[in-house]
Structures are given as structure tokens and as C-alpha cells.
Amino acid sequence: VELSHANAELRLLEVFYHKIYKIFPTQEKIENINDQYWTLRAEEIPEEEKNLDPNDRLIHVYHFTKDTQQNQAQVQNFGDPFFLVIHEGETLADVKVRIQKKLQVPDEEFSKWKFAFLSLGRPEYLEDSDIVSSRFQRRDVYGAWEQYLGLEHPDNTPKRAFASQQNRHTFEKPVKIYN
């Protein structure tokens, strides 16, 4: 993990199918963590997340595409999920500026992205003038992964030979075949 300063605080997250499912308490014993099915991610806690105002909310933000191969569109998450502080009364236009800066997405590409409030996999698309905090009722980020801000855009990440959620601790030794 690349730290912004020597005394930066870290958190350990449990990520599954591109959603954050758990933030481990700092006192959690490492031997209690099962990484067989989950991806673990360590990251620095941003300063703005440490001192939230009473009306601020820490929300989940996930990338998604809509799979329309079936009769009804289904949301497919991809990429790296993250947390974002949203402030009381902040419009989507304000939030978009901060997300673009955080993800460093060029204007031309970012202008094509759609933003939606998702609850139980159903997107409700937002307008720039919408107040984002009015969609998120609770400040609790533990177990709130089914309510998130979705960033709909094409998945431009390189495809891997194996699904990204397979056990990443399995390594195969290359074998040379001689004729």
C-alpha cells in the first residue's frame, strides 16, 4: 500500500464480486480472516473519512454495466469499489467532480458515464441537480452494500483467463512440453 505519510491509518476490507462486504475491526486477529472466497484489500483511510460531520455519510460506490442478454437488464459490477463521503445538500454535479478527480478519468470518457442510486440491484438514474444524501438513509457502512452509488460505464479492464473472484492464492508452475 502506498501511503501519503508515515503515520497514515490503514483499513482491511473484504471484497467479493466487486462489492465491499466488510471492514475488519483493527483488533481482528489475522488467523480469523478467511480469504479462501474473498479478496482482501488494504488501503489508507482518507483524512476526510476520519472526521465526518454529523450530517455527512460514507457511502459505497461501485462500477457497473447492464447485461441485457436476458429478458430483463441485470446489473454487473466490475472494477474496484470504494467509499465516498457525501455531504448534506450536495448535488450529484458536486459529487461527480470529486469522483472524476479521485478516479482521474478524462473529461471525454467521464461525460458518457451515468450515475444511479442502486438498491437491491435496481438502478434509479440521477440527474445533476439531485441531492445525493437524500437517497442514503443511514450513515452505517457495515452491511450497507446493497445500497450504493453506481457508476455505469463500459468495463475497459483487460479480461483475464480466469474469473477475478477465483482464489488468487493458487499458482500453477509453468510446464515445458518436449516433443
From TrEMBL:
<comment type="similarity">
    <text>Belongs to the peptidase C19 family.</text>
</comment>
<dbReference type="GO" id="GO:0004843">
    <property type="term" value="F:cysteine-type deubiquitinase activity"/>
</dbReference>
<dbReference type="GO" id="GO:0006508">
    <property type="term" value="P:proteolysis"/>
</dbReference>
<feature type="domain" description="Ubiquitin carboxyl-terminal hydrolase C-terminal">
    <location>
        <begin position="6"/>
        <end position="158"/>
    </location>
</feature>
<dbReference type="InterPro" id="IPR029346">
    <property type="entry name" value="USP_C"/>
</dbReference>
<dbReference type="Pfam" id="PF14533">
    <property type="entry name" value="USP7_C2"/>
</dbReference>
<keyword id="KW-0645">Protease</keyword>
<protein>
    <recommendedName>
        <fullName>ubiquitinyl hydrolase 1</fullName>
        <ecNumber>3.4.19.12</ecNumber>
    </recommendedName>
</protein>
<keyword id="KW-0833">Ubl conjugation pathway</keyword>
<keyword id="KW-0788">Thiol protease</keyword>
<keyword id="KW-0378">Hydrolase</keyword>
